[in-house]
Specification:
Alpha-Beta Plaits, 2 strands, alpha+beta, two-stranded antiparallel ribbon
Length: 104
């Protein structure tokens, strides 16, 4: 499937299922852009489905809405390359001072 067909299917078919997940707090779709100096990207997009915790995520995908999402998954991503990453975010405070650089 071309990147354009992937994006179209995701937007028109898949995301309407995802947005119905119970307990979903935030949904972010990151379209992967090509690096002009590197090889083609390995993925077309990275989706961030935000839940309060692992239990909420598990309940969401066990629900009828979650089962609809999972049933649609084989219709568009290459399931042999699909990776699911469950993460815990740690926000790093940035310095409020003026940074100096020795590059130059």
């Amino acid at each position: 499937m071309s990147p354009e067909a992937f994006a179209r299917y995701a937007q028109e078919q898949h995301l309407p299922f995802v947005t119905q997940l119970p307990g979903l707090r935030r949904l972010v779709i990151n379209q992967v852009l090509p690096d002009p100096n590197g090889p083609p990207p390995a993925f077309d997009a990275i989706a961030e489905d935000w839940f309060d915790d692992l239990a909420a995520m598990g309940a969401a995908f066990a629900s009828p809405e979650g089962q609809a999402v999972l049933a649609d998954d084989p219709n568009f991503p290459d399931m042999t390359r699909l990776q699911l990453l469950v993460v815990e975010e740690a926000e790093i405070p940035l310095s409020t001072g003026t940074a100096t650089s020795s590059i130059g």
